[in-house]
Amino acid sequence: MTHPTTPEAPVQTDPTVVRTEDRGAVRVVTIDRPEARNAFSSAVISGLYRALLAADEDPAVLAVVLTGADPAFCAGVDLKEAAADGAAYFRRHRDEPVIAQTGRMRTPIIGAVNGACFTGGLELALGCDFLVASERAVFADTHARVGVRPGGGMTARLPSVVGMGWARRMSFAGEVVDAQLALRIGLVTEVVPHERLLDRAVELATAATEPPADVLQAVKRMYVEGSGAPVLAALETERAIAEAGTTDFAALDERRRAVMARNRAQVGS
After folding, report:
1. Nearest CA to 190 among 202, 199, 205, 201?
2. What CA–CA distance (Å, rounded) separates 235 from 204?
3. 229 Cβ partners below 8 Å, 6+ apart?
4. What's the family (predicted)?
């Protein structure tokens, strides 16, 4: 299991796009860019990566809840910025691998999915130890439809959670999965009324702070390195194939618009 190194200087986050709040020994980390459905702008990439590192290195933080500001959890890659910046945008993801960081946490981390959780946002969520969803949550993998190869763990983690059939169906067809279907296929562990989501996630995270921290971290490591060993191998395969490919940056924004229209039609909004 890969652990982040302790930063040499105090970690700073950007409070305009990433908020943190401590509820006892639980740190709530919120992506706060609702006007863009909490997509990964450069500021979000840097701020969220640093916030997760800081939580994992703080001995007073025994569990983390990750969520987004309504109405979305995270729409994933900011395709408008990616289309404008080209390869430089994806280099920032390599330098500050925010999507991968949830899966690297030693500290237990629970995802509280409050709305749309798409593509890179779904990869971010899949790195959490488990997910709790609002009744408003919807999930989709649109990597293929927008012309981007997944590189944040989609093909490694999604099959281990929902099974190979549903994983391929989501990735190939780009189908939007609502909260109740997500519960049935095992993508989330519980669906709660929207207004109860954060409190319920904090309740579960608080329960995870009760065992001795070193024991719980050891149990988590057993899951990751033991039964999760095939996932770790699949992550390496995904990364190698993704890095060997090329991206048509000029077409990203046009594809983004088509996918957004399709998703709206599927969820009836």
Report:
1. 201
2. 28
3. none
4. Belongs to the enoyl-CoA hydratase/isomerase family.
Listing DSSP states for 142-188 in one string gives -HHHHT----SSHHHHHHHHH-HHHHHHHHHH---EEHHHHHHTTS-
Strand partners, 64: 27, 109
The whole-chain average pLDDT of the chain stands at 90
Task: Record the tokens describing residue 197, joined without a space.
Answer: 């989501």
Query: Mean pLDDT, to the nearest integer, of 31-37?
Result: 97
Q: Check: CB of residue 176 under 8 Å from CB of residue 138.
A: yes
Q: Nearest Cα to 176, choosing from 148, 147, 144, 141?
A: 141
Residue 42 pLDDT: 92
Q: What are phi and psi of 15, to 5 degrees?
A: -65, -10
State pTM to two decimals. 0.88
Beta bridge partners of residue 74, listed in sequence order: 117
Distance CA 195, CA 181 (A): 20
**By three-state DSSP, how is residue 51 classified?**
helix
pLDDT bin (cut points 50, 70, 90) of residue 204 is very high
N-to-C CA span, the chain: 41
Place of tokens 């690297």: 104
Asked if 74 and 127 touch (Cβ cutoff 8 Å), the reply is no
* Burial class of 182 by CB neighbour count within 10 A (0 to 12, 13 to 18, 19+): buried
